[in-house]
What does this fold into?
Amino acid sequence: MKDCKYSVLMSVYKNEKSSFLKESIDSMLNQTLKPSDFVIVCDGPLTNELDILLGKFNKEYPELIHIVRLEKNVGLGLALREGLKYCKYDLVARMDADDIAFHDRCEKQIEIMNEKRVQIVSGTILEFTDDIGHIVTKRVVPESNEEIVERAKLRNPFNHNCVMYSKIAVENAGSYRHCPWFEDYYLWVRMIQCGYEGWNIQEPLLYARAGDEMYQRRGGLKYMKAMLSFKWKLKKIGFYSWKSFIISAGIHMVVCLIPNSMRGFIYKRVLHK
It folds into this structure.
C-alpha cells in the first residue's frame, strides 16, 4: 500500500478564496498515504493573491506540484479534461479548491479499489458552513455497483469532490466534456455504459463547504435549461428510456423552480439521504 502512487487533480479559478484553497491543498498533502503527483489547473487568469499562494506551494514542492495554466476560463469540465492529461498515474483523486479531505481519505479509497476491483470510488461528504464544527447535512451515495447504476437513472450516483478513479477508464469513456453543472454526472454515465464499476464508501471522506449560494446555483431558468440539455444527452446515448427521461427531468424541473429556501430544505432533508 505504501508504494501505491496516485495523482491529485484540482481546478482553480479566480473567485476562489486563498485561505480555503490553502486548507484544501494542505489536506491532500497531509494524507496518511501521500500523493506522488499533484496537478492544479488554473482555469483562466487568477488573482494576484491566488497566484502568490500557488507559487509558494510550487516552490516548496517542486517535484510534486504541477501548475497547468489555461489562457481563458473554459469551465470545470474542459479544465479537468486538460488537467487529466498531465496526471502521471492511473489512480487520480479529485479535489475541489475549497473542500477539506479527511486525512485517511485516499488510503481508504485505494484499499476499496484493490479489494472490489472497481474503477471509481467515492464516499460520504459532510457539508458545513463557517467551520467543520458546524455540519449542516451529509450526502450519502449508494454503496454497491448495482445500487449506483440504479441511482444514476435519476440522480448523480457519486460525490465528485471526493472521487478517486482510474485515468485509463475515464479516458476510455471519453474523459470530461463541456456540460455545465453536470460534467461529472455525464462522465459517470458513460463509464457505466462502458462496463466500468464503482463503489461508495459508507463513511465520511470529505468536508464540503455549503451555503445558500450553493442551492441558488441549482435553481433558475439557466440551470434548468442546462439540466434539460444534459438529461436529453442521456436519452440520446440510450441511457434513459422515454419514461426515465420524463420522470427524472420532471422532478428536477420542480426543484429548479421552487424558492431557494425550499430548495435548500429539499437538498438537505431529502436528496442528501
